[in-house]
Specification:
Chain A is an all-beta fold. Chain A is about 0% helix and about 55% strand. In chain A, strands 2, 4, 5, 9, 10 and 11 form a six-stranded mixed beta sheet that branches. A five-stranded antiparallel beta sheet of chain A has the order 1-3-8-7-6, with no helix packed on it. In chain B, strand 4 and strand 5 (about 40-50) form a beta hairpin. The chains are: A mainly beta, B mainly beta.
């Protein structure tokens, strides 16, 4: 069965630095990989989607990479701010699983001033 | 446009009871998925409905069931509640399959005592 691992449960960085979060998976590469942000007691919010034939995607201060050889996605937040503090989830979609996303356990990011 | 609406937000039930949770997707979205989120297991897929048909089901016991109405609104039902069913139940809608982003509701926090 597929296994999804996010690098660490918690990541603490100083404001202004770049946060890098990792999502690793086993077996087959997904057709799509998504990143979500979740604040306590709230539902996840979509951030970025990257397809298996794309290497990199950017949106404002966010950047995601997808390496199907390493079976890994990296999620970067540049010039991080305390407001970026949240749990970040990666979600994999193998395209044939009819509306089912497989989520990692998430990485809790804390940005301190 | 209005987001995904889940009701109720909070619920306290006794072991053995049953519960029904409701989800109204974004207007025009025909796919509705349900997830259970617990600290120990993270986000786990329950089932997905598209145009009133269940297309996919996760590994949950038969006590968990759902349905979708012609207006795409969905309900999930849990019968014979157990303490372990305490969780945040999240509903997500998308325009079609998972290759577009999923829009999550705020969730229903179910506590079984």
């Amino acid at each position: 069965s597929q296994k999804i691992e996010q690098n660490s449960e918690a990541l603490n960085i100083q404001e202004g630095k770049t946060a890098t979060l990792t999502c690793n998976y086993t077996n087959y590469s997904p057709a799509y990989l998504q990143w979500y942000r979740q604040d306590p007691g709230r539902g996840p919010v979509f951030l970025l989607l990257i397809r298996e034939n794309e290497k990199e995607k950017r949106k404002e201060r966010l950047k995601v990479t997808f390496d199907t050889t390493l079976k890994q996605s990296l999620f970067h937040i540049t010039a991080s701010q305390p407001a970026d503090s949240a749990t970040y989830l990666c979600a994999l979609d193998w395209g044939s699983t009819l509306g089912r996303l497989y989520f990692g356990r998430g990485t809790q990011l804390t940005v301190w001033p | 446009k209005a987001g995904v609406t889940q009701t109720p937000r909070y619920l306290i039930k006794t072991r053995g009871q049953q519960v029904t949770l409701s989800c109204s997707p974004i207007s025009g979205h025909r796919s509705v998925s349900w997830y259970q989120q617990t600290p120990g297991q993270g986000l786990q897929f329950l089932f997905e409905y598209f145009s009133e048909t269940q297309r996919n089901k996760g590994n949950f016991p038969g006590r968990f069931s759902g349905r979708q109405f012609s207006n795409s609104r969905s309900e999930m039902n849990v019968s014979t509640l157990e303490l372990g069913d305490s969780a945040l139940y999240l509903c997500a809608s998308s325009s079609d399959r998972g290759w577009t982003e999923a829009f999550f509701g705020q969730g229903t926090r179910l506590t079984v005592v």
